[in-house]
Design a protein that fits this description.
single chain; alpha+beta; 434 Repressor (Amino-terminal Domain); Jelly Rolls; 2 domains; 7-stranded antiparallel sheet; 4-stranded antiparallel sheet; 5 helices; about 25% helix; about 30% strand; elongated
């Protein structure tokens, strides 16, 4: 899993900060609820996840915005998906509108690529989709997902390349790359222009069995 954090910098920015607050507010309550459901102390969860006890305590009190790597370690220790950890359990209306400021945004380690989580929380176990926006040179280096998973990257602006197992393919606006994502895969924005794309991940895809 790539190391990504929640966008909080002022880049034109209250929208991104608002998205971070939405994710943070859900996260603290969910981590605490799951920890208590497993009857784990802060120390025990820290030992199992490798995340410092003080950091977990800050997360539960919504005093910090953790990186995606930290959320990943906690989700593994609690045996739930990252998306489920980031979600709430309230029943939602059949028709709902998510405003741009309320859309959680994850940021790549280099700070040049952002993923807006636009997928539906009820499908995250088998279908996820994201809006990708990247500066030139922005890179997302991800570890493999579940065996049999595939990913689709449909470029709407700029140019991207995807590297899977040493094989690289490029796509410009109007083109789509589809590839196995159950192994390390790297998505890069190439050229001298910013890029945008729609990323869809199908987990445990039957076509790959």
């Amino acid at each position: 899993m790539s190391t990504m954090g929640i966008e909080t910098r002022e880049r034109g920015g209250r929208e991104l900060a608002s998205g971070a607050q939405v994710i943070s507010g859900q996260l603290g309550k969910t981590i605490q609820r799951l920890r208590k459901a497993y009857n784990l102390s802060l120390s025990e969860l820290a030992e199992q996840s490798g995340v410092a006890k003080s950091i977990i305590s800050q997360i539960e009190r919504n005093e910090t915005n953790p990186t995606l790597a930290t959320i990943w370690r906690l989700s593994q220790a609690l045996d739930v998906s990252i998306e489920r950890v980031l979600s709430n359990n309230e029943e939602e209306a059949f028709i709902e509108k998510i405003a741009r400021p309320d859309t959680p945004i994850l940021v790549s380690e280099d700070g040049k690529l952002r993923l807006a989580i636009i997928g539906w929380i009820k499908t995250v176990e088998w279908l996820q989709w994201y809006e990708v926006s990247a500066e030139p040179g922005g890179e997302l280096d991800s570890e493999g997902h579940q065996r049999g998973s595939i990913e689709s990257l449909s470029v709407s602006a700029g140019e991207f390349e995807v590297d899977v197992g040493g094989i690289t393919q490029r796509a410009k606006a109007g083109e789509t790359l589809r590839y196995r994502c159950d192994r390390q895969h790297i998505v890069r924005c190439i050229g001298d222009q910013p890029g945008t794309a729609l990323m869809v991940c199908i987990l445990k895809a039957a076509v790959m069995d």
